[in-house]
Fold each of these.
Amino acid sequence: MIIKIAPSLLAADFSRLGEEIRDVEKAGADLLHIDVMDGHFVPNLTVGVPVVASLKGKTKLPLDVHLMIDNPRKFVEPFARAGADIITFHIEVVSAPEEVLEAIKSYGLKAGLALNPSTPLSKIEPVLNDLDLVLLMTVNPGFGGQKFMPEVIPKMKELRQIIEGRKLSLDIEVDGGINRETAKQIIAAGANVLVAGTAVFANPDRKSNLHALRFGQ
Ligand code: DX5
Ligand code: ZN
């Protein structure tokens, strides 16, 4: 399985975002994870459409937009126009994800559904075949630098089995508290896209940070 690393910009120095992005791109990142928070669904407020628009064209990396917001349907078009390549929203805020998934795909983007640590896979099983990725949160969303929640590992294993059983090819992206210690267990559990903020941006050697995450050492 090819392991992809998606540095989360939430942990980057926002006063030097362009340099930070060039840094991780040079160091071998596969995606840029952009955490959009509205202060309602999560108790934090971060970046929005103008930041995504300013990044587009400045990097070859796909922009992996993680919407931690109450009304994702309303923001599909603005983020699509701003240059998002992937839009992931939370199953906890919609009763009918199909409509939002359709809107994301109508712009030719990849569509993902995110689950908080306590949300069961049963919530997304009905639409699993329509997804390009599932984002399993291993922290309660809202902040970087939190502790990894190992109780989510069985959910990764179960999801990988369901995907293999249905012969689907969607990605299992894991997000929150991922570092060189936890990366190995996460990859062994079947995840193939690792989001990491602190572990990538906290210390200067981006290349070795990314390498350690990708190979779990
Ligand atoms: C949390 C965000 C995560 C977070 C990851 O709500 O969705 O992407 O920024 O940061 P670390 O890797 O520091 O936990
Ligand atoms: Zn995220």
Amino acid sequence: MNVLFVASECAPFVKTGGLADVIGAVPKALAPLGVSVKIMMPAYPAVAKMLSQGTVLQKISDLHGGEARLVEVQAEGLDLLLLDAPHLFDRPGNIYLGPDGNDWSDNHLRFGALSLIASRVAIEGVGGWKPDLVHAHDWQAGLIPAYLHQTKKQTPPCILTIHNVAFQGLFDAGVGSVLGLSDALFTPEGTEYHGRLGFLKAGIAFSDMITTVSPTYARELLLPEYGMGLQGLLQARKANLTGILNGIDLDVWNPANDPALVESYTAATLSKKAANRAEIEKRFALSPNPDAPLFCVISRLTTQKGLDLLIETLPGLVGRGGRLAVLGSGEKWIEASFIGAAHQFRGSVGVIIGYDEALSHLLQGGSDAILVPSRFEPCGLTQLYGLRYGTIPVVARTGGLADTIIDANAAALEAECATGIQFAPVTAAALDSAIDRTCDLFKQPDVWDKIVRRAMSHPVGWDRSASAYLDLYKHVESMPEK
Ligand code: ADP
Ligand code: GLC
């Protein structure tokens, strides 16, 4: 089966978050199941250097004001279809934001172009290859189902995966005609979101199936607290909505063989974590304390991630002897609060503002626990990396965090199934008591050790979810044409 993935990022080439990890990992898990995936993504500067090694499959004379090409490149075990459109994508810095920190003003053209060309490839194929179905990811690929819907030609089915409903791709109503969308689609049941045009909404309205990245988030999306205004449409499409849990790439995230660690380790050589812990203490200027856990955070610093709650609980964390290493960037006020905390709690709180892939691996390798206090979390990957690295996840009970971590309450400890700590509601008080429970468990080395070993053997790979995607692909292929 041939599947066209369409996404705005893909690890290890271009990454701002978990979407990239998923796009880079799923095709490799699907290959042994007989699914051949090509990933269409923009040729940003970070990937443009690969263009010269690729094969030009198509030239496009005018794509929203400039020339473009589709170039096929094989790299890192992935088959990429790069949309080379320098006037849209050859820009330095963050792939979504301009130098002023705001969204590029032509993002509708940039990702509208990605969707348009993907829909053409879906209908006509390219270089002798034709997809049996299209798998579009997030708002950047959300217009594909709309383009497929409005054509009179025969089209393959299209699945949309929502990785985060908070990012909807909303633009002025007028962009519809610029992007060649029929006016007839601009209705509350179609692309219209309160008078604006919504890329994600278009995807939800016109795709054959909608998936999201955990079963709990699939249920949460139907509620006003989580649906961000799309809960009505999602309710209407409920029969076609399903949650498939993310996994992780076990080759990239493997404590037994991770070049970013000072010392690799397995469940049988856990004491080697200490060398990684010492390196973190050095890099984050933290004082050693063997009696309390070293917590870490690896995250976008946003209100979604609940890290403002963590700032409120720092006196409690530090008061119990805990230490915290934070790696992240995002909202300026959260960055500033953590920098302030590092001054206030010198030696106990260390912060590095920025994005550093290797350091994120080291933090997983050397910390005792990872904090993920998200207000909502479609799936979350850092808690899965934590499980694999024996770095105990302390998570809010929401979305994929609820689905992946088994709380170490008294009954679960007795049943020997606990893999982490969950808390609810998502408040500073509940987070504080979760940190307290973590410190308590840490003081019982036998109990802690068992949780760590169990976490490390918890299945977090893609096997099960890759089969679920295959089943879904077969189901969608067998659906009657709309
Ligand atoms: P989201 O996609 O919502 O940001 P996920 O947990 O799904 O959250 O994925 C985040 C990904 O980005 C993980 O791979 C995590 O390790 C990585 N990440 C987040 N912030 C940083 C950072 N500052 N430096 C390095 N990696 C980071
Ligand atoms: C989004 C979500 C995150 C999820 C990731 C990959 O960025 O915020 O929860 O893990 O996509 O699906």
Amino acid sequence: MSNTTESMNSQASDMSNIDVVIIGAGPSGSVAGALLVQKGYRVHIVEKQHFPRFSIGESLLPQCMEFLEEANMIDALHSSADQLEFQFKNGAAFARGETYTDFNFAEKFSEGPTTTYQVRRADFDHLLAQESEKKGVTITWGHEITSINVDGERPVLGARDEDGKDYELQCRYVLDASGFGRVLPRLLDLNRPSKFPVRSSLFTHVEDNMVPEEFDREKILITIHPDHKDVWFWLIPFSDGRSSFGVVAKNEFFDSLPKDSEERLQTIIAQVPSLKKILRNAKFDTPVRQITGYSSDVTSLWGNNFALLGNAGEFLDPVFSSGVTIAMKSASMVSSLLDRKFKGETIDWEKEYGEPLRAGVDTFRVFVEAWYDGRFQDIIFAPKPTIKIREMICSILAGYAWDIKNPYVKDSERRMNALAEVCQTI
Ligand code: FAD
């Protein structure tokens, strides 16, 4: 899959008519690329790494299946699922102390797919990139975007190959899909601090050896620390008996624990009886990694001949597994807008991209805020929540954060508060 510098140069000489350069071949870049080539545009992705490469974020939401369908990638996904050990997923489960509740996505309020997968992102992202290449996207692997000038009529990008040689690319439009690389926010000074506090995550992959009767592999399990409502764990099984496991907390929480990451993770598990039980036979055979300060925001999601996709724009928090869905939603929206722009229409990028994309992100934001201050936890663990309200909440958990028919999308903050108040009195 990797290109030599020689083949890159021959590609570069054929790059005079590129319509769109995409920075990064993660889910947002590959889906945007596939959608645009299928509309007849010439798309080139510059990807810093060689795939398959590790990425965190293994639990997908059903809403993203619609974008994969739109990009004509869904058949490839289903037909590779067994071989790549993607785990069929139909819901989300939550545990706090002795209480457990789960949501089956089939019972959601919004229309649309009800199931998806839990995936190793190295394989999933590789599959999507390969599919985009099959459809006509060109990708240079191991090359990095280092500079950009968007002042002229056509953006000019500076790129660096693996030998450290710099070269330039020109195009009609640039999409930044660089994820946590945040290339254009850095180069164009668009970064703005997230309103969420700095949190860290420790995570690993384990041979889980879980007892089938004790655990539903078809759902992500989110467990809340018994003594700290803002410390939580994910358990995301794959179909081969292994799972992704991680914990999220503020740095102060981690600071009080042993320095060594593996010891640190084991110490925290020992504090949570339900997890200790589920993982009692697990083999921790993979190094523990840490990521810190991932929440981020930007002053604008677009500018002169460029737009930001996925994590290169705003990233909230991992708790509702919304990252890949937001990434693909942004790719889908931008591809339609670019098609209209290239056909001569004037696009109001704020009204048609910035505002509507952020509207869905803001729905997730209300849920994330309510998660950390405990309101959402009180709602889902309340003894008798009404069925209708559970269906509306289930829709958001399934990723349908842009469905304005759902009152929890249109008026999320007020409804969340009202419901939390009711639940506290039960
Ligand atoms: P990415 O997937 O990050 O891809 C960006 C690509 O750009 C990379 O391949 C990178 O190599 C490339 N790149 C970077 N810089 C350059 C450059 N200068 N030149 C060229 N290429 C470059 N999301 C979920 O949906 N479900 C989850 O369960 C989930 N769990 C998470 C857990 C944690 C702890 C965290 C921090 C995040 C989690 N996420 C989850 C979020 C998810 O990982 C991201 O939202 C998602 O990967 C964003 O996709 P993307 O395409 O925007 O960027």
Amino acid sequence: MRIAILGLLSVWLTLDSSQASDWSTHGAGDFEQRYSTLTNIQRKTIASLGLAWEQSAHSHRGLEATPIVVDGIMYTTSTWSRVMALNAVTGQVLWTYDPDVPKFWAKRLCCDVVNRGVAVSDGNVFFGTLDGRLISLDAKTGKPRWEIDTLIDRDMWYSITGAPRVIKDLVIIGNGGAEMGVRGYVTAYEKQTGKQRWRFFTVPASPDGPFEHPELKDAVHTWSKNDVWTGGGGGTVWDSMAYDPQLNLLYVGTGNGSPWARHQRSPDGGDNLYLASILALDPDTGRLVWHYQTVPGDSWDYTATQHMILADLSINGVIRKVLMQAPKNGFFYVLDRATGELISAESYVFTNWASHIDLESGRPVETGLADYRLEDRLVFPAASGAHNWQPMAFSPETGLVYFTGRESGWVHSNADDKWFALGAENIDELIGEQKIPEEIGFLKAWNPVTQQLKWEKVLPNVWNGGVLATAGGLIFFGTATGKFLALDAADGAELLRLDVGTGIIAPPITYSANGVQYVAVMAGWGGPAFNTLAGNEALLEYENAGRILAFKLKGADVPLPEKIAPRGSIPEQAELTSDEDILEEGRILYVRFCGSCHGVYGSEPMLPDLRRMLPHTHELFDSIVLDGLYESRGMASFAEELDEKEVFSIHAYINHLANTTRKAN
Ligand code: CA
């Protein structure tokens, strides 16, 4: 009897330790808490943490992936949806797979050629590609097993940057593109064959249907009849998912409206379901069980696609099954994940679009200060969000949720340009009497029960990495400026700071192999903020050398990337015209088509700074923009969007901008 019990116990212990030693799913379990029970690396031992190995990701742009580790093998993705399998102990590359994403797809993306990782299940590696394919690879060999097209229309500017999740026998994936005029949906495919099981559209196709499923008939009443349906509606499911196996509910977050402004999208108003919402779906059928809309009638790119963490919390003496999210809109939400009931919501940054969330109705109380129908408005938080896709972490030990974000605002304008609101020069006027915060980045430790800040660490740059929490009492994350930090989870005391020279936006993971605990992270700066290097000394000093870094106790020094030559001052450029109208047309077109990659209003971008073009590039300007001369580098042809006259306006504006910023410096 005793032996039998011991036998059972050892089986249980083996299972438990193997689960703890791997990082086998995106969020370290269905609840997506990003918490590890490993304790070799802890407060007392952290000082000797150093490099175990590094491996190149062959990229100079943003790396956002969460590496997956199963049985000593790490699976991760680099830019352009390329997959790598590595020995998790040595970093040796076992195989790579390049899905050959057509380079012209780059112009269809809002936010860099990124990918947030793979899912691994039963010897299969699943991942999405920038051009909308879902692919299954053999985990041993990297050879493809199946590949399917997830897009309903390949001419629309859809993309996939998010990591798929495996729920039972299904692979679940959504898509991105709400800045680009698409209609959001999430789809489940059978993991063995890739056969589609169900699809849930997040917004109706038109006032008259087709209604692909009954939930769209409910939703259509929240859109105005004279809606501009050509905008696609938006509501893309581009990142966050979580799963409760007991309740058998799959949670997905949906994105912003397309176009951004509701008064353009849905002129007679309405909540516009299911934009900016958390949806609880039955994973077997794809039917909606409940929904909670964070921002009814969103006009500010306030997505609810941010990381969702499930946990069981004691609130007012009762254990509640909760779902937690800190979406872009600046409020931290705690929902009952069985019913969708709002338990609490408090602002975690300065917000001026809404004063608070009414707990009775579950709706935000808008201030009117963010209504830009008639005049430009400076809105807090910014469209990039007080917190964006960077994953949070929850420690059951401290009961705190840790996340990086920022205090920042954005000018929304009702200018002609539908997709990207233009900035304003009359900023003081827009501020008016408001006491606005200084633009800063932060890591916050948030108590979800009391809805209060426990502690925070202020960061010099606003665009930093995701977070890992461990039972060693530690919080790990990387910064935009190339530092990898370990903090005391209880009070935020900085216990370790490694200079890695490469800006980090990805979240770290931890795993153990052969009894050694490792912490690993993708280093490579970029993503949504890649058009401005403001305040990022690492990127002005070192190459943005994309790589995977793995750390262990008693590790080595981290080699720094190659130094780059100082950029120097902006050269004087030829003024191509003095016609103010042409320059203004060039400015608007530049902001719309060029700024998201090459920087706006004179900010120093990560990609080529066009103000610094050399004579050779000026000569080729039309060929580059209209003929796709540099398509292999990711600079697609814009012949479908721009004619020669408009390209001239853009060129003239860039040269004029170069000369004005040159004078200003
Ligand atoms: Ca968006």
